Description:
mainly alpha
Amino acid sequence: MYFLNKILHRVLRPAVALTGLSVLVACGQPDEAVTRSSPPDPYEKFNRKVHKFNRGLDRVFIRPVGKGYSSAIPDDIETAIGRFAFNLSIPSAVVNNILQGNMRGAFNDTARFAVNTTVGLGGFFDPASEMSMATATDADFGQTLYVWGVPSGNYGEVPVLGPGTDRHMAGKVVDLFSNPLTYILPEPERYYGTGASIAARLSDRARYSDTIDSVLYESEDSYAATRSLYLQNRRFRLDRGRSDTYQDPYDELYGVPSEDPSNVASEE
């Protein structure tokens, strides 16, 4: 019990702190009902400069490395690494489901994690899907803030991390501390998930290369296109898919957790 309390204390302390920060950032911003469809972008001039940097980073590093990685690694191994990374992210979703009061989601995610970690050999295989278990919720702390009623704040773009609202960016920071495995696994095992996640992002960049390239390099205004796609995709995630069936592959470029790679593989 002492160990569990220690983990919860270390997970929730930064969450509470960042929640206060995000509320302060959002103070004075329009109500959520107004910003839901189009959060304000008061720093667009600066954001466009950041976007130009991110696009250059993609051109000279992320895109070529992603294509090289995907070409060098067999498809089955790529899929297995993606599954492994996704499986290790599930405990963080469990924490966020609990914070959101979504106990069914927390239970379903825990069950999927348990099955794939044991029978699925650490998550490299996905017997949970073969058993028709519920799909993982992929909950994050930005969604938790949304459930708690924190306004979205302004839209912006951050170097490397890409587009986001004040609320989403605050959530990303908390997500760095919200996975219980970070406090349970010893070194260097605790870093395996980070390495697998980076590899999965490179795979995503190659998988969605045509779509991402069309947005970044073929759009008349890639900044406006990026903003529009991000806001559509984020709205879909906040609504947990209830509003429509839109799915934006462009989110993979900036590290938004992927859907379960096993589902992608089955569709292909």
